[in-house]
Amino acid sequence: VGCDRSKNLVDICGEKHFQAFVCDALSVPIRSGSCDACISIAVIHHFSTAERRLATIRELARLLRPGGTALIYVWAMEQEYKNQKSKYLKEKNCSKNKEKEMDTGTAQRPLSDQGPDNSSQDSAWSDQLLNGLKDESCGAKPVADFRLPVHTNRTSFHSQDLLVPWHLKGGTKKKEESVDRVLIPGGSKESQELSTVFHRYYHVFCEGELEAACRSLDCVRVQKSYYDQGNWCVILEKL
Fold first, then answer.
1. From CA 222, how far away is CA 36, in angstroms rounded?
2. Of 26, 65, 99, 228, whose CA is between 20 and 30 Å from 219?
3. Sheet-wide strand order for 180-183
4. How far is residue 75's CA from residue 233's CA, in Å, rounded to a whole number?
5. Does one domain contain both 159 and 227?
6. Where are the beta strands (DSSP E) in the chain?
7. Using CA atoms, how far apart are residues 154 and 165, in angstroms rounded to an integer?
8. pLDDT tens-digit map of 148-205
9. Strands 64-75, 231-238: pairing kind
C-alpha cells in the first residue's frame, strides 16, 4: 500500500492497479502496529524543521509491528563521498536531451513550515542535535535573514537548507500557485518557450544526522546506516 501528498501521483498508481491513497507523512491513517515493513524514500528531507523530520520518523515507527523494519532514504549533503562522486553529480556532464540548468539566484522563502511544534522536548532535542552537528566537515553555511539559497542543479550543496528548481515543461499554472517563469536557452523552438519553475524546499542531511534522529527514539533500533549514491540511508527495527 502506497501513500503520497500528490493526488495526481496516486491516480497514476490507481491506473496501474496499485493500492495507494493521499495522506500526510505526519499523520498516516493506518492502524498502529499493522505493518511488517515501511519504506520512506526521498520524503523526510522535504520537512523544514528538525521537529517535523523527527515526527515523521516517529509516525513511520508507529505503523510497524514489533520486529517490523523500516527503510529510510534522504538526500545527502555529501554528494562526493570517499572520493567518489554521486550519480547526481556525474549526470551533469553525461546527460543528453535535458534542459540546460541555471543558477536562479537567491529567493525569499520562509525557513520554517507554518504550524505548531510537536513538543518542547522535541525542540530542545533538535537544538542539541543541530549544535552537535555544526562542524566544519559538513561544509554547510548558516542561513541568515530567512533567505534560502537556490541550488544549481547537478552541483555540490553549499547549504543544508535550500530550494531546488523544478522545471515544468508544457505544464499549466493554477492561479493560486506562486512560480517563476524563465526562458530556457536552446536551439529548438520548443526549448525557447517559457518554462514554469517551481522551487522545492530540501533539507540535505549531513553524515550521522539521520541516524542520530532515529536513535533518539526509544521505540526503534538502528539495524544499519549507510551511504548510497548521494543519499543517507537507515534501516530501523521496531522494538
1. 16
2. 228
3. 161-168, 194-203, 180-183
4. 9
5. yes
6. 2-4, 20-22, 35-41, 64-75, 80-81, 84-85, 106-108, 147-149, 161-168, 180-183, 194-203, 220-228, 231-238
7. 11
8. 999 999 999 999 999 999 888 765 555 444 455 555 555 555 554 567 899 999 999 9
9. antiparallel
